[in-house]
Design a protein that fits this description.
Helices cover 12% and strands 14% of the residues. It is an alpha+beta fold and 58 residues long.
Length: 58
């Protein structure tokens, strides 16, 4: 089995893991009601997707 030749420093390990951090959700704006929604999802407020009525919201 392969073994590491030298111990990795904390900074080198941290640099490798720098991209693992949680990123905030990218929100889009509904074209009809201007509320914040997840991209490529139906708006839960008005029920539209890309300007077309998809579902009836009670």
């Amino acid at each position: 089995m392969a073994e590491p030749k030298k111990r990795l420093t904390k900074s080198r390990s941290g640099n490798r893991r720098s991209h693992i951090a949680k990123k905030p959700n990218q929100l889009a704006t509904c074209q009809k009601c201007k509320s914040k929604i997840l991209p490529h999802h139906v708006c839960p407020v008005c029920g539209t997707y890309k300007g077309e009525k998809i579902i009836e919201v009670k």
